[in-house]
Design goal:
Aspartate Aminotransferase, domain 1, alpha/beta, seven-stranded mixed sheet, Aspartate Aminotransferase, domain 2, 2 domains, 14 helices, globular, three-stranded antiparallel sheet
Length: 393
């Protein structure tokens, strides 16, 4: 890479003085871990997305684990999900002694195929213990939730939405993440809103909410912060279940509350960047732009190359972008290509052909509010220059 070129990172959080002040206020309060600020964050988040309950956790992975535990998933069970995701989606199923049942993605998007789920259910499984569906809204593109919800009801299956990419996402059916039995969002540093690390579980079901609230903090039967902050509180408590350490701190929640106020503003900037990319890329024969569907949160802009129309590979394309000072990533390396999942289930690359094909073509471009107009144009020109120079006529 030319050392004189300013590098454009793949991702950068959008934080300002408001977030700094919110953190300072928590520090000055004398209470840093889970407390009143986190409770306020949960209430504000629930109102924002129209969920009856919202429960803050220290990661989306923790949220998925808690949600599956609340749903009663255990040894011998199977949960339908996609291989085209980050490992945490499926690994939390394994942590409960159950097995993910992978179903390939659809041709039109990076999301799990409803038709292939139906085929899997018709075919059944050796154990006949399919308990639910765990769809992933990849890149912020909503899955076909109307069809998934209808299918789940017909088959008496639960739906747990992995909405880590899909905030804020509004669809004709409602807010993504609130359409199934439970939904989980991520506040990782690259997400539309961030708390550094963190996540939120949402549900309309009081029973699930109570179970998750109990299990996210050691299975203790009362909020710990009340024991230390109230002058009348008792020191006594009881451990009633084998819980986890999955709570979110007030320091993180303070940032989250400010970020939540900016969520729609952030989304509009991401939409604008996506439109600019698509406008410039859609007429190039060697590029495939992502579909712009209603409710897309644009956490990622997944640009695909057409390998048969270029004299360079996807990996070489990425390297040439890096040489021009453009940071990129790849979402995702399908799970069935990773050593653990291959070893555990004996997968071969061709077992999920649509996931394999898209993985070999995709490049994730920078898309975040902190990008300047000049940087956006640099990214666009870099992609076009590389593609035009290596296009097969």
């Amino acid at each position: 890479m030319n050392q004189n070129i300013d590098f454009i990172p793949f991702a950068r959080p959008s934080l300002g003085p408001e977030e700094e002040e919110a953190v300072v206020q928590v520090i000055r309060s004398g209470w840093l871990t889970t407390g009143g600020v986190t409770k306020s964050f949960e209430e504000e988040f629930a109102r924002f997305c129209g969920s009856k309950f919202a429960l803050a956790v220290n990661s989306a992975t923790a949220g998925l684990h808690l949600a599956l535990e609340a749903l009663g998933v255990g040894p011998g069970d199977q949960v339908i999900t996609t291989p085209y995701t980050f490992t945490s989606t499926a690994m939390v199923v394994k942590h409960l002694g159950a097995d993910p049942l992978f179903v390939d993605i659809e041709t039109e998007s990076f999301n799990i195929s409803v038709e292939r789920i139906e085929e899997t259910l018709e075919r059944g499984s050796p154990t006949n213990r399919i308990r639910g569906i765990l769809p992933v809204h990849v890149a912020g593109h909503p899955c076909r939730m109307d069809q998934l919800v209808s299918l789940a009801k017909e088959r008496r299956l639960f739906i747990l939405e992995d909405a880590a990419h899909a905030f804020p996402s509004r669809t004709p059916w409602g807010f993504v993440g609130t359409l199934g039995d439970l939904g989980v969002y991520s506040f990782y540093a690259t997400k539309t809103i961030t708390t550094g690390e963190g996540g939120m579980v949402v549900t309309h079901d009081e029973g699930f909410a109570k179970r998750i609230s109990l299990m996210r903090l050691h299975g203790i039967d009362r909020e710990i912060w009340n024991r230390y902050t109230s002058p009348t509180a008792s020191w006594q408590y009881s451990v009633v279940e084998p819980g986890f350490k999955y709570n979110l701190t007030d320091l993180a929640s303070a940032i989250g509350r400010v970020q939540l106020k900016k969520a729609d503003q952030f989304l509009e900037k991401r939409k604008a960047i996506a439109r600019m990319y698509t406008e410039h890329f859609q007429d190039r024969a060697y590029l495939k732009v992502p579909p712009e569907t209603e409710g897309h949160a644009w956490h990622l802009y997944l640009l695909r190359i057409a390998p048969h129309k270029l004299r360079i590979t996807r990996d070489e394309f990425i390297e040439k972008l890096r040489e021009k000072g453009i940071g990129t990533s790849v979402h995702f390396i399908p799970l069935h290509l990773h050593p653990y999942w291959k070893r555990t289930y004996g997968f071969k690359p061709e077992d999920f052909p649509e996931s394999l094909k898209k993985f070999q073509e995709v490049i994730s471009l920078p898309i975040y509010p902190a990008l300047t107009e000049i940087q956006i144009q640099r990214i666009i020109q870099a992609v076009l220059q590389i593609g035009d120079a290596h296009f097969k006529l």
